[in-house]
Amino acid sequence: MADRYLSFTGTAPGRFLTRGLGLPQPSALRRWSPEQPGLAGGEVLHLTAGKPAPSSVGSSSAVVLDATGVRDVDGLADVHAALHPVVRSVAASGRIVVLGAPLDPADHHQAAAQQALEGFTRSLGKEIGRGRTVNLVRLTDRGAAESTLRFLLSPRSAYVSGQVIEVTGTAQDVTVDRDQPLAGRTALVTGAARGIGAAVAETLARDGAEVVVLDVPQAEEDALRLAEKLGGRALALDITAADAGERIAAELPDGLDVLIHNAGITRDRRLVNMSADRWSSVLDVNLASVLRTTDALLAAGTLRPAGRIVATASIAGLAGNAGQTNYGAGKAGVVGLVRSLAPRALAEHGVTVNAVAPGFIETRMTAAVPLLIREAGRRMNSLAQGGLPVDVAETTAWLAHPASGAVNGQVVRVCGQSLLGA
Asked: Is 0.90 surpassed by the pTM of this model?
């Protein structure tokens, strides 16, 4: 459904009226396309906290501030000194990325200063406006963060803001085609026949993957149609079946490189009115099936070394949502799965495990939400608009990238920096 308010605020009368009434003024976001693959507005400006900034600064598409050396409160003054003169120069839909260091448990001054960067970047993200985003990347080796920085400094990250992403380890020797980094790799997407799942499948196929479109037998026709369009294949399967993992493994005897857990359902009711069936059906699809199939595919060796698992959480699992105790529980469970499994899966199988947590995304499901609730969902984020399925898909593709092996155990919100949740 079209966002008429966003369209209206893009007109001169709309800007005048909303500014006068103090209403949100969202900016149309610049998203990736073959015709517009990069950000607009000039060069990327690289700064280091504590070092002199350029004497004159023109318009920039992005600013990268290296604050890894900040170890105390005085160092935070250098962060202010570096960014204060240049914030206004960042173009609409531009980016600010702050580079931080892991918190040092042996130095509480360093830990305090580096933790302060989180509050700083999230606050700046909520005030910067004009479709611009602000994120913090904690790293030990900048080379290991190449795919992450490439993502955050591109139109692909249009709806990702206010995030803290930890990149662990050192740079990996990975050579891929920049335009088709997933060439030669096989990806399976559950719940892929429509909506966000279809967008994920299309984006992975764009990046060169052979995509297996998995959905329930009732959606087989849509799955077959999409698979044919993408040059992949369809798999009609109820992901909640006890033997779903074994059946997937049998269908993929040559192995799998990317596993995307996207299948999910809602059965909303307040707890006092929620039947046991509504509770269990949501938990079975959204959490239990993810656990069962992941365990089965890892045990079978179906996921190849350097494989990627990306699960779909939700801000409902991080912040909660009235009428969704079942959904919130399931999506919070996905977060627990990621944080627990990630280090073991990497150590034992060479596979990373991460999650995306969408906020308000414009789909057929959200189009059916009552008008006032839908408008609140759209406006209650720093970008003052809903996201698109492709925003979730682009974030998933970054986590699935062969060069993203240093990104593990992360839960990345794709929510325009929702005002709810952490």
From this structure: yes
